[in-house]
């Protein structure tokens, strides 16, 4: 899909929505605005497209039938909101009048994201692979119905959930990328990255692999492992490297995200680079300048 291309991914959609004045402390996170402020979601996607992103991920990371049900939203409306997440990116894309290629990636966050307790950064939920696949399959099906260009299976904390996602993907008939959140040379659950990426090595429907929502300094070694293990295009979209203080309810430290690092990641075989939490459109614009300058 992206062979021989340099692709710029978007940054933190939730970060941009917060910058636009929205409180995302709700358990649904940015998915709440799919119902409450869809035009603001379009504006956030548009900001990243105008910054130079080729790919925008939908505001569906924390969206699921289970999560919506907890807010009193039934399955019919939940399915409509999931489809809307894709439609809103398409609306943003339609407002950019140039010949730059752009893709819509439907975000599928891990089971832990729905729990809204930080467990997506630990994994090992005590839930079987079969139950994890059953949780993911319905929203994969609905997101695919909305016809994004691909699915983004992202911020996956451990191998077992990756396997469950791949089980659920088998019947969908849509390409996807698989991206782990990592800590050093291991998944958040502690498995070696060679083992983690090996599950995607023989899957034709997985068109790219990589890492996201990790510290920028964790990217370089991880992407080499991803490329050597799978032979697939590799993507990297770390967060800013800042920490979250749950007691104070605020981010701590300063951003360590640097667009200039993209050159070294490309030298290690990365195809697509972007940002995750706390990476705003300005950082993506700087990244796009680095990428397109060669």
Total of DSSP H or I helical runs spanning 4+ residues: 12
The second-level CATH architecture is: Alpha-Beta Barrel
Poorly predicted runs are none
What's the CATH topology name? TIM Barrel
Q: List how many beta strands DSSP finds.
A: 12
Mean of residue pLDDT values: 92
Can you summarize the main beta sheet?
8 strands, parallel
SSE ordering: EHHHEHHEHHEHEEEHEHEEEHEH
CATH superfamily grouping: Homocysteine-binding-like domain
Estimated helix fraction: 40-55%
Determine the N-to-C terminus distance: 20 Å
Report on this model:
By secondary structure, this protein is an alpha/beta fold. It has one domain: Homocysteine-binding-like domain (TIM Barrel). Helices cover 41% and strands 16% of the residues. The chain contains 12 helices and 12 strands. It has helices at residues 13-19, 32-36, 38-51, 65-70, 75-94, 111-115, 129-145, 159-169, 193-198, 219-230, 262-267, 281-292; strands spanning 7-8, 55-57, 103-108, 150-156, 176-180, 182-183, 186-187, 206-212, 234-237, 243-245, 250-252, 270-273. The protein has an 8-stranded parallel β-sheet with strand order 1-12-9-8-5-4-3-2. It has a two-stranded antiparallel sheet with strand order 6-7. A two-stranded antiparallel ribbon has the order 10-11. Helix 1 packs across helix 3 (38-51) and helix 3 runs parallel beside helix 5 (75-94). The two termini are 20 Å apart. The mean pLDDT is 92. Residues 1-291 form the Hcy-binding domain. It is an enzyme of class 2 (transferase).
């Amino acid at each position: 899909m992206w062979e021989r291309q340099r692709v710029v991914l978007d940054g933190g959609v939730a970060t941009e929505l917060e910058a636009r004045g929205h409180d995302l402390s709700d358990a649904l996170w940015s998915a709440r605005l799919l119902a409450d402020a869809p035009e603001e979601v379009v504006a956030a996607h548009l900001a990243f497209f105008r910054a130079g992103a080729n790919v925008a991920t939908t505001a569906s990371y924390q969206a699921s039938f289970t999560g919506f049900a907890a807010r009193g939203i039934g399955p019919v409306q939940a399915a409509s909101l999931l489809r809307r997440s894709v439609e809103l990116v398409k609306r943003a894309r339609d407002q950019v009048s140039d010949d730059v290629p752009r893709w819509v990636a439907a975000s599928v966050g891990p089971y832990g994201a729905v729990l809204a307790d930080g467990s997506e950064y630990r994994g090992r939920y005590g839930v079987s692979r079969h139950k994890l696949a059953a949780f993911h399959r319905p929203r994969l099906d609905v997101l695919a119905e909305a016809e994004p260009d691909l699915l983004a299976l992202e911020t996956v904390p451990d191998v077992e959930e990756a396997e469950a996602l791949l089980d659920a993907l088998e019947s969908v008939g849509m390409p996807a990328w698989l991206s782990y959140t990592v800590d050093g040379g291991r998944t958040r659950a502690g498995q070696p990255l060679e083992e983690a990426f090996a599950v995607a090595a023989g899957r034709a429907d997985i068109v790219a692999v990589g890492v996201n929502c990790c510290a920028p300094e964790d990217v370089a070694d991880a992407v080499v492992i991803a490329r050597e293990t799978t032979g697939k295009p590799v993507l990297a979209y770390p967060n800013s490297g800042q920490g979250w203080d749950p007691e104070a309810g605020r981010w701590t430290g300063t951003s360590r995200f640097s667009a200039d690092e993209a050159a070294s990641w490309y030298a290690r075989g990365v195809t697509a680079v972007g940002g995750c939490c706390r990476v705003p459109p300005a950082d993506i614009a700087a990244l796009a300048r680095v990428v397109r300058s060669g």
